[in-house]
Amino acid sequence: MRYPFILLIFILFLIGCNEDRSITFEPLTFGIQSCQECAIVDITVPEAIGNKKIDEVINTAIREEVISILNYDDEIDASSINTAIESFQSEYAKLKEKFPEESTKWEANVTGEITFENEKVVTVRLDYYLFTGGAHGYRSLRFLNFSKEKGTELRTMELFKNLETFQNLAEKEFRTQENIPESNSINSTGFMFENDMFYLPENIGFTEKGLQLFYEQYEVASYADGPIILNIPHKEIKRFLALPIS
Asked: Residue ranges of the Deacetylase PdaC domain (predicted)?
């Protein structure tokens, strides 16, 4: 009589193992472009529309990143993208009031996309451009990596079995790409790594082609050099990863 019970347990186990970890995304858009006295704001980011824990985690992380990009007014406690837009507009309005002759509009553009997804991991990239006066605007990106299994956002150290071992690989790949002899210091060709020691960038994320390391302008080189991007193929990073990517 125990067999039906054991069979039920086995079936439930199989269902758990085959849990659907797919995520459905829809574009979420915010924008202010038609107001003559307003800054230009154009935001389109992916929104996870399911009811799983990971959906909420992804949406919260994206929201917080967009808020941090836009929030220019310390007097406004931005808790949503809309209030962050208000913060951005408020600071622009203060500038216009102080300098009425200022004709150049502020601009904020944020676009998001899914750059990688499998059963274990999903990566979102936010590309953004900000112009708040001066000679030029600022363009950059932010990677957000998530574990579907844990339902959490992944820190850089959680991506790898051993961060130091991966960093050694990344330095080797970086030297090859930038033609820096192995016997020379990492800054010997004009880079500006602090203490003349190689380190990983703040922005690291998965793409369909591999792992992208994105050094922002000023992070390790001059503004004129622009961002420094290193792409390492999946086959080369596979053995270093804490989570499977294929």
From this structure: 36-137
